[in-house]
Amino acid sequence: MNINQNINKLLYALKQKGQFYKINSFQFYSEKNDKYCTKYQVLLRTTEEIWSLEEDKSKTIEIYKQRYECYSKIDLMKYFMEEYKGMG
Predict the structure, then answer these.
(1) Of 23, 58, 67, 83, which residue is least crowded by CB atoms under 10 Å?
(2) pLDDT by position in tens, the chain (length 88)
(3) What element of type H or E holds 36?
(4) By the 8 A CB rule, do 87 and 17 touch?
């Protein structure tokens, strides 16, 4: 089983527990290593209530907040494993 499959299974298990994650990846050129590298950002979906003075009521919006950054898929998988273990 490869790393992508493991990450997808962990994301699915966390989704079943009520935590929704999003992964952003960015590629950049590293002059130090003389090659392209990939940076991964893990974002967690949270909900916040915003009070509208004009309408005199509140509404709930979804916001993604950054939780973790890494440069390897193995570190990404380890992070999700720790998150899953922490949920009990």
Answers:
(1) 58
(2) 699 999 999 999 999 999 999 999 999 999 998 999 999 999 999 988 888 777 777 888 899 999 999 999 999 999 999 999 998 7
(3) strand 35-52
(4) yes
